[in-house]
Every structure is written in structure tokens, then in C-alpha cells.
Amino acid sequence: MKYILSILGLSFMLISSAQACMGPMFEEKTFLHKYPNDMSTVKFAAKVELKENLNDSGLIQVQVIKIAKGQPVKQTFNVMYATHSCGGDHNLKAGEVHHIAGEFDANGTFKGAWKGVNFGHAQFTDEGRIDTPRVPIK
């Protein structure tokens, strides 16, 4: 009986964890506090102001403030961000300023999700760069 309960408990944990993010190292963010250290694979990077969240659909309209790399399709465009349990872009509000790094798809929508260990302020240096490696999600 003890083994059956252990197996049932483990099964329940595996099933329930499939719906939740497994930890900060799996979190994806599109809107960053600073630019990633390595932007060699990035086609476009900019500091942007959030304008309009499009019905929590995973799209938000942004306005370019300053371009760091590449050229935008337009000065105002839509950015796709993750809305699943590992999506780290929560409670986005118009007027906030963030950095983005990624590329535009064929429809002109920006995509640039990054995965890392911790996106907290402790991960940034005085120079405004991220201390730990970030991996762009393709």
C-alpha cells in the first residue's frame, strides 16, 4: 500500500507540473531590462515604449525609442510574447519602457523570446549588460 501511494503521489506531481513552469531557468521573456550580452544572432534590438496590449492575446503594440541594431519595419509595431506558464512578461502596462532583441516575422510582427536563469535586477551590471548567458528561443 505504501508503494502504491508513492506511485500515485509521484504521478500526480508529474501531471500537475506539466501545467506549471518548472522554474526560473525555463522562464521566457521578450521585454528585458537591458540588452543581452551577445546580440550576434539578433537582427533587431531596440529600447521601446509599450503602447497598447491587444486583449492579452500575446501581442502588444510598441513604439521605438532608440534602435541598438537593425531597422524596424515601422516605428510602431506589434511584439509577440509568451502567455503560457513559463512566460515571464506579466502585467505589461502602457507607458513602460523595455529592451527587445530578436527579429521580425513575414507579417512584420516582432519575435524575441529569451530564456535564462533569472531575469531579476541582480543579473545586470552597471554597464547595463546581463551577467549570465541568455539564449534566444528560435
Gyration radius (Cα, Å) is 18 Å
Q: What order do the strands of the largest sheet run in, or round the barrel if closed?
A: 2-3-4-6-5
Number of domains: 1
Large-scale geometry:
globular
In percent terms, what proportion of residues is strand? 25-35%
Order of helices and strands: HEEEEEEEE
Q: Tell me about the largest β-sheet.
A: 5 strands, mixed, barrel
Q: Report, as a whole number of angstroms, the end-to-end distance.
A: 46 Å
- Please identify the structural class as seen in this structure: mainly beta
Q: Would you state the CATH class?
A: Mainly Beta
The average pLDDT score comes to 76
Which oligomeric state applies?
A: single chain
CATH fold call: OB fold (Dihydrolipoamide Acetyltransferase, E2P)
Overall number of strands: 8
- Per CATH, the architecture is Beta Barrel
* pLDDT < 50 runs, ≥5 residues: 10-17, 117-133
> Treating each run of at least 4 consecutive H or I residues as one helix, how many helices?
1
**Estimated helix fraction:** 10-25%
